TrEMBL record:
Organism: Brevibacterium sandarakinum
Record domain HTH tetR-type: where: 18-78
Pfam families in UniProt: TetR_C_28, TetR_N
GO molecular function per UniProt: DNA-binding transcription factor activity; transcription cis-regulatory region binding
Cross-referenced PANTHER family: HTH-TYPE TRANSCRIPTIONAL REGULATOR BETI (PTHR30055:SF234), HTH-TYPE TRANSCRIPTIONAL REGULATOR RUTR (PTHR30055)
Listed name of the protein: DNA-binding transcriptional regulator, AcrR family
InterPro entries per record: Homeodomain-like_sf, HTH-type_TetR-like_transc_reg, HTH_TetR, TetR_CgmR_C
DNA-binding region: 41-60
UniProt keyword list: DNA-binding, Transcription, Transcription regulation
Domain of life: Bacteria
């Protein structure tokens, strides 16, 4: 009977490994934001995710693998975001600006985590650089003007910064839309 229970638990774990991996990455990203890289220990991540340390090590054998998983998830989320931008068609630049100030989303949490990691990790810096390049490339392809694309991206950066530090102005997006309308966008 004990063997049956153990195999049932193992098959349940095998059925949902991606759910467990996502919970671990969520916990890691949250801990990076709240406590920094030194506070995002394997023990803390396992506890935050409600997984044993052995369960964490089953999915991510080290902190380096957890970092790699977090950055791979950021890359995936950015790819999905760029696809959503492109799906917005003529409104691509407006989609980018409207979503720039969103907080609490999986993409936002991944960006914050990568920013924390980038203080000590070159791969995180590279992931953030690739993120910015992907967004810029989509904006530039859409607008056909690299200077305008960079300007829109920098406006989005400012909106994101202000929102994350509770400095946002309720009317900011309205003002940006008014200026873009005067530019024919």
């Amino acid at each position: 009977m004990i063997g049956l229970r153990a195999s049932t638990r193992l098959s349940a774990m095998a059925r949902n490994p991606s759910d467990t991996k996502e919970r671990l990455l969520d916990a890691f990203d949250i801990l990076l934001d709240k406590q920094g890289i030194s506070g995002a220990t394997l023990d803390a991540v396992a506890a935050k995710a409600g997984v044993s340390k052995g369960g964490l090590l089953y999915h991510y054998g080290s902190k380096a693998e957890l970092i790699k998983g977090s950055l791979e998830r950021l890359d995936r989320l950015v790819d999905e975001d760029v696809a959503s931008m492109k799906a917005a068609g003529d409104r691509l630049h407006m989609y980018y600006l409207e979503t720039s100030a969103e907080t609490g989303t999986p993409l936002d949490r991944s960006l914050i985590a990568a920013s924390c990691l980038a203080q000590e990790n070159d791969e995180a810096k590279d992931s953030l650089r690739k993120t910015r390049e992907a967004w810029f490339d989509a904006l530039n392809e859409h607008l056909g003007d690299p200077d305008l694309a960079m300007t829109v991206q920098l406006i989005g950066d400012g909106m994101y910064f202000n929102q994350n530090f509770s400095l946002s102005q309720d009317e900011a997006l309205k003002h940006v839309k008014n200026v873009l309308a005067r530019l024919g966008l």
